[in-house]
Structures are given as C-alpha cells and as structure tokens.
UniProtKB/TrEMBL annotation:
This is ABC-type nitrate/sulfonate/bicarbonate transport system ATPase component. InterPro entries: AAA+_ATPase, ABC_transporter-like_ATP-bd, ABC_transporter-like_CS, ABC_transporter_ATP-bind, P-loop_NTPase. PANTHER family: ALIPHATIC SULFONATES IMPORT ATP-BINDING PROTEIN SSUB, TAURINE IMPORT ATP-BINDING PROTEIN-RELATED. Keywords: ATP-binding, Nucleotide-binding, Transport. It holds the Pfam family ABC_tran. The keyword Manganese does not apply. It comes from the Bacteria. Residues 26-257 form the ABC transporter domain. It comes from Lutibaculum baratangense AMV1. Belongs to the ABC transporter superfamily. GO terms for molecular function: ATP binding; ATP hydrolysis activity.
Amino acid sequence: MTEVVSIASRVSAHETLRGSAGRGHIRIDGVSIVFGSGRAAHQAVTSTTLDIRPGEFVCILGPSGCGKSTLLNSIAGYVRPSTGEISVDGEAVSGPGPDRGMVFQQYSLFPWKTIRENIAFGPKVGGRSATECGSIANTFLEMVGLTKFANAYPAELSGGMQQRVGIARALANYPSVLLMDEPFGALDAQTRLMMQESLLNIWSEFGTTVVFVTHDVDEAIFLADRILIMSASPGSVIADLKVPLARPRSLEVETSEAFMELKRSCHEKIRAESLRAFQQQAQ
Ligand SMILES: Nc1ncnc2c1ncn2[C@@H]1O[C@H](COP(=O)(O)OP(=O)(O)O)[C@@H](O)[C@H]1O
Ligand SMILES: [Mg+2]
C-alpha cells in the first residue's frame, strides 16, 4: 500500500496536470436554499457568503442534516439557490459543468466499463479524440497508482481503489474545482488514512480548488487550509478557521499541539450545534 503515498511524484506529465492552476475561484454570495414550498417548505441553507481562493483546500464540517451536501450540490449546479448567487471564476453557476468535478461517498463508477473507460468517459463526452482520451486516462491512472488495473472492472477493485478511480475520473476533465462529499466515509480507518495522504499528494500536483465535506474533525484538520463549520439547520457558516499546519503534512502532525488545539476548538463548536440540531429534532 506504500505506493499510494508516493503516487503523484511518479507522474511524468506535470505540465498537463497543472492545467487548472490559478483557476477555481468560488464566490458564494448571500445564498439561501429552500426545498419545497408553502407549509412543506424547508430551509436547508441560509444567508451564506463565502470567497474560496483558487487552489485552496477547504473542508466543511457540521452536524448531520445541517446542509453541507446541499451547499456542495449548489456549487456543483445540481441544486439552485433560492436567493443569492454562486460563481466560479466569474461565471455564474447555472447547472453542472465539467469545470466542477464531483466525488461522492458511494463509488459512482460505471460497473460495465473498465477502469480506463471510466476515467476516459468525461474527456470522450467532451469531444476529445480517442488518442487524447487514452493519454489522459493513462496520466490519471498513473496519478492514482492504478495503471495495473486499467482493464479491470470496478467490482474487481477494493473500496479504496474504486474511490481513487472516482477521483481520477473527476480530474480527467481538468476541473478547476473538485467537490467531495464525504468521499472516504465508507472506507475502513486504515484505508481512509492512506486516501487522505494520497489526496493531498494529488492536490499538490494538480493545484485544483477542493471543497471537501466531512464530519470527521481529524480528517478536516489534516487535509484543509481552511475549515468552515456550519450551524445546525438551517445551515450557515458559523466559523471560518485557518489551519496553521505546514505542508507537506504527514500523519505525525496529528499529535502536534497546534493540531490538538484546533481539534478542541472544532469539537466544541460542532458539539454545541449538534446539540441544537438534536433539540430541534426532538421538538
Ligand atoms: N432534494 C431535497 N428535497 C427536500 N429536502 C432536502 C433535499 N435535500 C436535502 N434536503 C433536506 O435539507 C437538509 C440538509 O440536508 P443535507 O444538505 O443533505 O445535510 P448534510 O449533508 O449536512 O447532512 C435536511 O433536512 C434534508 O432532509
Ligand atoms: Mg451530506
């Protein structure tokens, strides 16, 4: 499994990977999201304003049901804000697009396509030639350390490997933004740690903006430049914290004083919001 940690350094095509550097500026301006209408209306997100810089790695934490996925889906263009606006690099988001890659918790690969075909799918739909698709697929297969599995089918791979294919498939469109919704939530603890290191390697190589939703505080601190904590429903950002840890990071950082202190502060804020969410549900 050590191959996972060093994968990005083995990729030769560095110039192509840097395609998204400098892009991925997300602006969320006064966004509220209401589902349903009338008596059935449910406000999931309220008055949220955020500015996420190109290349920034942002983690979103918050109690279950507070609107984390809804906010992420609105950046992806799957959910339309009821009020306010979202833009990426100055372009208003009005629907999904290849500039915003998404990775979900469930491995949403095509089971009837090989790993190579899964990764090449986006570029193929985007009109790239067969040669280009092949070369892009090879680059990203190498990046996630799965070259040997190019011709295998998803069912032949472990959960961690499938999730690496999911990341490769999202990156194969050269997105300026990578949106990840609890992508490692279904993995065992050991694989999860490997995936976190692996993702940081990929991100440092690729330079894309990442917005990563998790409810795991350790994961958020280990990965992020910046942590956003959301309130209980309706969700809004109640804390915007800078992670004061140098990069590159290795797992030892989790025992440092700075890590512990930030962890305490995050837990305190989330506990208060979780309690509020619990009380809301009990009413
Ligand atoms: N498509 C939808 N229609 C109606 N309600 C929804 C929809 N999606 C999410 N919700 C509701 O919005 C709230 C926030 O959901 P979600 O964003 O999934 O929370 P989180 O990801 O933080 O757990 C929840 O109360 C959920 O039931
Ligand atoms: Mg969610």
